[in-house]
Amino acid sequence: MEKKKLYVLTGFLGAGKTSLLQHLLDHLQAKKTGVIQNEFGKLSIDGELIRRNGIEMTEISRGSIFCSCLKLSFVQALAEMGKMDLEYVFVESSGLADPSNIEEILQAVRALAGDVYELKGVICLIDGVNFLDQLADIETVDRQLAHCHMAVINKTDLISSSRLKEVTESVRKVNPICEIVTCQKGVIDLSFLDRDLMSLQWAACEDSHNTVDNKPKTISLESSAVLPREMLTEFLKCVLPDCYRIKGFFHLEEGWHQVDVVEKQIDFKPCEAREISQLVFLSKIGPMVIRTVDGAWKEVVNQPMKLRN
């Protein structure tokens, strides 16, 4: 059996990893493909977006796959997928994941399952709108970029040419040799699948900064309420200063919508109906986010809901 071509997708919260993965899966639908998807929250929001017939999929939640808390689960998932008749395997890591130890993880996979993978590249998605602020404030962004082989600057339709130049120069300061490409909505030129990205290795393998001690708090909200878009937007605005990211599905008066909140940007996209509305909150302030969400909901919405860890 030939080695599976393995790609790891990294990038901070909201950079567009799932959009890029959807684009890849659409292009490779004639190929046998596997996906390992990692989310910090208990609920699988992104998994719902990419699940489709013919895709072997494993989801690993409630932490980073590069942290000691989930590293063994990640190794086992790769080993199991390594036994399958697949051509490509894509790993979509959480937005707060630090992939600095990916080589160490692959050594463990080889010990468990044999030499079944060829790592073809670590691809880092960059939010062109928010990257400069993120790079200044969040060390994970720096480490994701330092350990990638290709940097994809996304959302170029939302920034000026001078801003793009500034982002590109900042990328080069962190990683002098990775390939840099630009795109909109995660739709990139897929010719990289035929190139040798591994020759663009910059940083050496090192311990991941993801640990049990710095694992962020996530909670989820469930409700059967049907709300006006304006009311849900007001609630989200009250909560977002205390959250890295908010995402989920909600039943609005105009129909079911996917909800995606990155920084101050709140997006709604029509989606298929669900049994119940669900939102996941990734906290900047630890367990105190429970009080924030509960208080804002009572003040703005004041309808039944449940919060879950």
Nutshell version of this structure?
This protein has 309 residues and is an alpha/beta fold. The protein has helices spanning 17-27, 46-50, 71-82, 102-113, 131-137, 139-146, 161-174, 229-239, 289-300; strands spanning 4-11, 33-39, 55-61, 88-92, 117-127, 150-154, 179-182, 218-223, 243-252, 255-262, 265-270, 277-283, 306-308.
How many strands, what sense, and barrel or not for the largest sheet? Answer: 7 strands, parallel
Query: Could you say which overall geometry the principal axes of the C-alpha atoms support?
Result: globular
Summed up, the helix count is: 9
Fraction of residues in H or I helices: 25-40%
Structural class given helices, strands, pairing? Answer: alpha/beta
Strand content: 25-35%
Largest sheet, order of strands side by side? 3-2-4-1-5-6-7
Cα distance, first to last residue? Answer: 42 Å
- Name the average pLDDT: 93
Q: Gyration radius, to the nearest Å?
A: 19 Å
Total DSSP E strands: 13
Regions with little confidence, pLDDT below 50 for 5+ residues: none
What is the string of SSEs from the N terminus onward? Answer: EHEHEHEHEHHEHEEHEEEEHE
